[in-house]
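Key idea: predict the complex, not the pieces.
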Amino acid sequence: MKNSIKTLVVAIFSVAVLFGCSQRTVTRVSPDQQIDLSGRWNDVDSKMVANKMVQQFLNSPRYQQYSSDNGKTPAIIVGYIKNKTSEHIDSDNYIKKFEMEIFNSGLADLVESAEFREKLREERADQQEFSSPETAASWGKEYGADLMLFGTMTSETDTYNKKKVVNYITTLYLTDLETNKRVWYGQEEIKKYIEN
Amino acid sequence: MRGFKVQVVILLTVFASCATYYEVNQEFNYEFEKGELNAANQTLAKKSKKLEKSKNRLLYYLNRGVVLSMLGEYEESNRYLEKAYLYTEDYQTNYVNEAVSMLSNPNFVAYKGENHENLMMLYYKAMNYLRMGQYDNALVECKRLNIRLDQLSDKYKSDKKYQKDAFIHTLMGIIYDAQHDYNNAFIAYRNALEIYKNDYADMFGVSVPDQLKEDILRTAYLTGFQQEYDLYKKEFGMENYKYQRTDGGDLVFFWHNGLGPVKTEWSINFAVVKGQGGVVNFTNDEYGFNFPFPVSYDKETGKSGLEDLEFFRVAFPKYKERPTVYSAANLSVNGNQYPLELAEDVNAIAFKSLKDRMLKEFGKALLRVALKKAAEEAARNEKDGLGAAVSLFNAITEKADTRNWQTLPHSIYYTRVPLKKGEQHITLEMKGNKGDQKEEFVYNVKSGETIFQTFSSLDYAVKLYP
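Result:
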């Protein structure tokens, strides 16, 4: 009888000693690898949506028509993407992914965002005073964008017991800066089913 | 045998001290509650070496952080709060300690903080950064808070548990708001609103602060969410709301009213009723508890180590409230009154969190007692006297975990006050049953700036210990 209890106590201790202090392990993985943990919006989603949507508009007949009518490679500025979801999504990062896709496509030129333009102007103003005239960047040569890309993100959540479906919808508009005419209009959804 | 007894005595002194965590830190508590913050800081500093190595180091970091923050040493305060944060991030279950705690008491396990404490820690840290004007750093804390909130809501499957914190969402909104990031502020405020409506009203009797409603409308307007703006105006019954741009700044004032609860212990007696097939039931009629435990038993004799037990005592933690002296407060600026609204009832959250997991606590405590009793029985059969010694050891070591963060406020109130540019005088008026108290504040307001202020009234109504 006493043996069985002794065994129990001994067993607890052996388990304790065996596990000891568990080690935290960290493994490096490829940034392209898709890892979903919580089911919330993550880096893979940003990448996926940015890639798909940019391809969508670059290949759309309307954009191509605009491009050929324009006579030169259209210059695009990525405005803002408003977040209406219930999550804090790093929109800066998201916007940069769009910019990168556009830049790398070669089918459009990219113009700096308002924030960066301010910084560049400051630097240019600085140069007028302190740089040698031959090397100083001159004023009035900024490249004007033809098109502006902006949009919103929304999410719809449906839950029942331990199941949850979240649908993230990104809607983007590509608008002609001169005429306010919409050149392209697209929507991309990412639907996630999470079971606890 | 004699040598063994000496060992037992030594062990007992090591393991046993029937004082609660609050009593152990009486010197610090006394000074802190009196508002002698420098002395309280010194008391902690004196013991820092020992405390930093102890199993309660998290509480040391937190208390130090609070005291330094109240002293206005924000940078130093954040050094300790960061240590606390990293400690909870890297916390690893130490199974040896877990096992020892099973055979003695739960104080053998390093303290890793209650859920709400883990959030409040980052609240203090963010506030320190805001007061130093380091908004980007405050945003880092915001992001950490977001992760912690997500982890918390993933933790429980049931909706009826404290798993979402409305105040922390509000705070995040306020931080984004101060940076003029109205889009993110709106999201945070809207999330807070949902939690106040769905959880806080029922669980803690805290309703949606009017300030939050106003902030939602303002940020919706500034983000250009016209649809949401109209919708919430209707929902809040604030059809007349109109956003007005001012050339001054804002003051966001947090009032920490009183002090949060303290953990003490209570114990109940269980009777052992033998069930069938090696199951032993621990029952307590008074509370209607019945916990069955499978116990290994000897096949030949059909006996288990728990046969001879009839009664025993199990200790559990419980919270003891420190009721507040003040029931309300408002800010008065240029003849205008701004009531401070209850945003977080830390006291109620603490009670609720412990209640939420009490069944788990019961299970743990009973398993602990069962193991201890089993060891005692084994020892009793081994040698004369040994069993008695183990029994004594068990009785003395039976203790609940009474550790908690005791420098947290009882409840947090807040409001936003628009201020004109230049020097501004603000009065905080606190109303209590023992008379009113006033505090004056002076700010030099710049255009578009958000000033952050916290004020802690440490008084509470009932003395905990003589």
